[in-house]
Design a protein that fits this description.
binds N-oxalylglycine; five-stranded mixed sheet; alpha+beta; Jelly Rolls; binds nickel (II) ion
Amino acid sequence: MDTKNDSSKWFNVQLVPHSHIFSRNDRPGKEPIPLCKTIPVVDINTGERNYRPSKRANTIQAIIRAGQEFGFFQVVNHGVPEEAVFEAEEVTKELFSMGVDEISADSDATGWVYMGSCSTNYATKDAHLWRENIKHPCHPLEECLQYWPRKPARYRDVISAYIAEIKKLSLKILGLISEGLGLEEGYLEGMSQVQFLTASNYPPCPNPSLTLGLLKHFDHSLITILFQGDVEGLQVMKDGKWIGIETVPHAFVVNIGTQLEIISNGKLRSAEHRVVTNPYKARTSIATFINPCPNSIIQPAQILLNKSNPPLYQPLLFKKFVTLSKPFGPFTDALTSDITP
Ligand code: OGA
Ligand code: NI
């Protein structure tokens, strides 16, 4: 479903309104930003235990190196059925085609579901984001379902099925990272949960140089698993420069969150990223945040520490970290409300 011809939407304008123009420091400007051809695309299937050990070791190494160098990689051959991804993308587009006010009006989740748009005063430090988004908790799934949108009618079914698949994938990836870092078996998997989902609609924008779909930020996750469809827009900071992440058919983008940077004692890096807009096409993304359980104490893993590798970070309860950190926007506000018994 293409939203660009819907004349009733706030974004169907000839000029970017003042409310959405970012400061000179934050706006992308006119300089073209190259797509990065070197962010690794990892065939995750080759990391399965029944694969040839040398091949499996290469897969693990590729992930660790990507985590060190870019904080980002993509995974293909990941085992999430195409159908589950397709359905999630379709139902998300349907959701946004309804309009923000209709979704919010029909929500039981006051304080849990955030809708960002021009009309809902979801401002960053100085400008509104060029997007609409919905963010809701996913863990424990059965308890969270009641807070999810009621419409489209199949949203809850489709997204629960998607989350179940993302959970399996996250355990696979965290298992390979645990092994690559030399952590005990199950170290990262044991503390993880698919805690939140953020779905975004970035409408076409008349002047992408002035505004942003999403301001630069870090994710406070262990890892984030992102479906970005076939419209580019995500950019990552690397050596002081922005680089664009290519779209790869049937891939997920995975990034290292701040919590995994801490646990790895800085071996893996959490990279700043942002989303620029597209003049012609709407972009739909679905980000799933694989976070530590709220009561996990986040600190460099003991097994990695020695005289020449002293801890670089203080231990902190994850939920405390979330209340203390101040990235832009409502991301952290949502996390502080602990729904886990
Ligand atoms: C996020 C994020 C990227 C995207 O939600 O934290 O970085 O492409 N999203 O929507
Ligand atoms: Ni992010």
